Amino acid sequence: MRELVPAKSSSFILLLLLAALSFLPACGEIPQEEPEVFYSETNEAPKTQTFRWSNGKMPKSFDPAKASAPPETDIVRAIYEGLTDTDPKTLKAVPAVAKYWKSADENRVWVFTLREDAVWSNGEKVTAKDFVRSWQRVAELGEEIPHHALLHNITGVHSTKAKSIDKAAGNKDREGKDKGRMPVNSSFSSANTQQESVFKKPQQQIAKIKTPTIGVEAVSDYELKVSLNEPDEEFPKLVAHPLFKPVYAGGRDFEDDEMNASIITNGAFRIASVGRDGVTLDREERYFDKNKVKLKRVKFVPSESADKALAAYKAGEVDVVTNANFEPLALKLLTPFVDFKRTTHSALNFYQFNVTREPFNDKRVREALAIAIDRNKLTEGEMEGAAKPAFDYLPFDVGREKKLGSDSGKAKELFEKSGFPNAEGFPKIKLLVNRNNVQEKIAKSVAKMWKEALNVDTEILIKGGKEFDEIRSSGEYDIVRRGVVLPTADETANMLVIFSDDKPETVAGADKTQKAESETEKSPVAQESANEKKSAETSSNPSGDEEELIIDTGVEKETILTEAEAIDSIPAIPLYFPTSYSLVKPYVLGFEMNTLDAPSLKNVYIDSLWQPKKKPGQS
């Protein structure tokens, strides 16, 4: 039986429990209008525009190319400005360095017109050539960097190659796993020492080899042209991602991977100091839109554990907590407090079909297996309410009617039409999953649902690491469990991430799956979203036409570029989206957590006039 509350956290949980009990009214007490109750009692707001943010451990790099998740992505968004930015509420693309853009050739060509008042922190102009050099650098870094797949739709990217040369002797066995990573020192002190050796890594550089030019062109100093392989009407959303932010002089500041205050940036904030007690940013006075930025200083306060982050929040030492891995019970106890927030996270866990094997090359079979799963039962049961059921492939609610709901009756009908009444003659399903307690439980639950709804037997292949990859590479499976992080609101880019990574021998296919698993399963219940995500189950509602019931091999199909195409062909079964959460002080305004976990510090400010609501009877 899995231990929900480790002994080391028992005292912490007890304190939370006592706080939660304060919500219960006395027996027989007449109900009154309850005041807002916050986990952290705050008597008054800070008087300065200094924002203190606990968003995980100490960051390991300021390089946008290596920023895969918080805390790195949070800092990169603050100190670098890309072509576009993401509106934290709507997730739409908004102007940043690019003041406007247009498309041609059915959204295969995009031209961005840059503002002429955007400058680097050293006063030099930001030009289109800066973006060309930066994107070429990222393309050359190759699959060793996170989210490299987001570049794959740009022409020429797949043909770029590069090597990473580690100047430190005898370091060949790292294979890029720790490149750009700062060693975490467990004994953080309060000293704010800048440019300490603890932040240095062995110097690396990109090998000087010839690489093809990618489809990014500086038409002029302030006009950038981008050519794509596939049409993408939401491309401006994609380039808001940290990966596409420009770096000065083609990344010269990151050649030795030092984390210090001297790097040149172009965002709303600049690095003021780096020390063992965290990273401090100051508002950049050269930023073109500085008058709209209200915060004068941002302090990223590292926390080695969720308990320490929560203790700092309760003590008033930080204003916001994100990216903390609380225990399941702690999450349940935090739920009643109004400063505790939950958000659906942009990541997908799903089962992908091997459509080269019969009978999984039959769409009717795939659809039947998909709609035989009760996702609400799956997330509320096996996931303990820590995830949102996925009735489609993306977590962004676009009001689409056709989804993959739960309909066992329709599933039986589809099985009969495909020639397998009551599963007669249907082979035992080989379901390949990672060696992981949560995934084992989910697989057993799904297998039970298939058996009850369709009379199908399932052999669950629980494998880890190399063995998992070998089986997937050999194709000796029928369905495989996968997980991907979807780091953008761009539908086309997300579809390419989900369905183009079919080969496990690539980093995008194998390592990304492991990365996504780590990202989406920090704790089965640690990101509880039970009360926010009870979506009504809907039937997939196929048309019933014979055209819809044809067999397809799945071998020669075109690339899936839209969610509607995926729902129509069902190459995979979406299972669930994880949730993320945050604690935000009531005097912090403009801090919008969203599906992308991408709040914008440009919108945040401290309401210095905030006062707590008075309790009933209090004068």
Characterization of the model:
- The protein has 14 helices and 22 strands.
- The relative contact order is 0.17.
- It has 2 domains: 206 residues, Dipeptide-binding Protein, domain 1, CATH 3.90.76.10; 234 residues, Dipeptide-binding Protein, domain 3 (Roll), CATH 3.10.105.10.
- Strands 1, 10, 11, 12, 13, 14, 15, 16, 17, 18, 19 and 20 form a 12-stranded mixed β-sheet that branches. A 4-stranded antiparallel β-sheet has the order 4-5-9-8, covered by helices on one side. It has a two-stranded antiparallel ribbon with strand order 2-3.
- It is an alpha+beta fold.
- A hairpin with a 2-residue loop joins strand 8 and strand 9.
CATH superfamily of the largest domain: Dipeptide-binding Protein, Domain 3
Radius of gyration: 25 Å
Q: Given the C-alpha coordinates, what overall shape results?
A: globular
Q: Architecture of the largest domain, CATH level 2?
A: Roll
Structural class given helices, strands, pairing? alpha+beta
DSSP E strands, number:
22
